[in-house]
Write a structure and sequence with these properties.
Layout lengths: L1 H21 L13 H6 L31 H4 L9 E2 L2 E2 L8 E2 L3 H7 L12 E8 L6 H10 L4 E5 L1 H6 L1 H9 L3 E4 L12 H19 L5 E2 L5 E2 L1 H9 L3 E2 L17 H9 L7 E5 L3 H16 L3 E2 L6
Parallel strand pairs: 4-5, 4-10, 4-11, 5-6, 7-9
Antiparallel strand pairs: 1-8, 2-3
Helix pairs in contact: 5-11, 8-9, 10-11
């Protein structure tokens, strides 16, 4: 009996220690320590960036919708959380008008601590960049942000951290926020809870090993999510950050010029805008200085992304 009591005491002590170290209670589905080798060995060749956004843009539905629409709903739904595949999309209403999100989507985000807008009573806007991989334009974007005293959120993947630590270090040192875009860029509703945790915490812990800080914002790959993924990622301490403006700027073979990118953004500025731009776009890199100056000329300020 004494041995059993002693063993019970040891187990209880371990549970309490884990709780205070991680800030989370353990459970039967306890997360195992992510393998950081996975983060550093992942290859871009095995990641699909062809459809960075699969939800509705104002121009219409993306050309090719993936075939997994409802394949994983039953497999990963629970009694408390639906795994119905949702694709973040907005319908733009033009300059100085708040765009329309899918019915019920803002309320669902609010329930799980997510966001896609800043304070719409203030003329502040926020810049966010998705950095799945590098096309040679990030330095120019960072230069423009530095020269104009604007900070942004850069959402990176595992390969980006592995191959471009120098750019990530510059982001951190120059006051930007580095967000989590997962290790392998999967559609989160298509994978189990444990795998979601590995995708997010694996990248987070690799980032922490280098920079000594944790990530706090998550941008779900492809803008795909479900109530289940919102609940899982909230439990991990993350804010799912979507957007109130985006356009089809991730196609590297569609170079339309900096004026095109500039006009796209200028024509859709509004209070509290969270602007999504892809850093693989030459148009965006060439236009970012113009965008910042143009927005300020129209009376908008760039808010501190830490306040989101």
């Amino acid at each position: 009996m004494k041995n059993k009591a002693f063993i019970g005491f040891i187990v209880l002590a371990i549970i309490i220690a884990v709780y205070f170290i991680t800030g989370e209670k353990t459970s039967g589905d306890e997360l195992k320590e992510p393998d950081l080798k996975e983060v550093y060995s992942v290859s871009l060749e095995n990641i699909d960036f062809s459809n960075e956004i699969t939800g509705l843009l104002s121009e219409g539905v993306i050309d090719e919708i993936p075939e997994y629409e409802d394949v994983f709903v039953d497999a990963f739904s629970t009694d408390s959380h639906s795994n119905k595949l949702l694709r973040w999309g907005i319908s733009r209403n033009g300059y100085n008008e708040i765009p329309d999100a899918d019915p019920g989507a803002p309320e669902l985000l609010e329930k799980y601590g997510g966001a896609y807008l800043g304070d719409t009573s203030q003329n502040k806007i926020y810049l966010t960049f998705d950095e799945g991989y590098e096309k040679g334009y990030t330095a120019k974007i960072l230069d423009a942000l530095r020269d104009n005293n604007v900070n942004a959120i850069f959402f990176i993947t595992g390969p980006y951290l592995k191959e471009h630590e120098d750019f990530v270090r510059r982001m951190v040192e120059e006051g930007h926020v580095v967000g989590n875009h997962t290790v392998h860029h999967p559609s989160l509703p298509s994978i189990a809870d444990q795998k979601i945790e590995e995708e997010i915490l694996g990248l987070d812990r690799a980032f922490y090993d280098i920079f000594g800080e944790n990530m706090k914002y998550l941008r779900p790959p492809k803008g795909e999510y479900s109530e289940r993924t919102l609940a899982v990622t909230k439990k991990l301490g993350y804010t799912n950050l979507f957007w109130s403006f985006a356009y089809d700027d991730w196609y590297t073979d569609r170079i339309r010029g900096k004026e095109y990118a500039y006009e796209k953004v200028m024509n859709n500025l509004h209070n509290g805008a969270v602007i999504l731009l892809h850093a693989v776009s030459k148009d965006n890199a060439d236009a970012i200085d113009m965008i910042i100056k143009g927005a300020r000329e129209r009376g908008f300020e760039f808010g501190d992304v830490n306040d989101l």
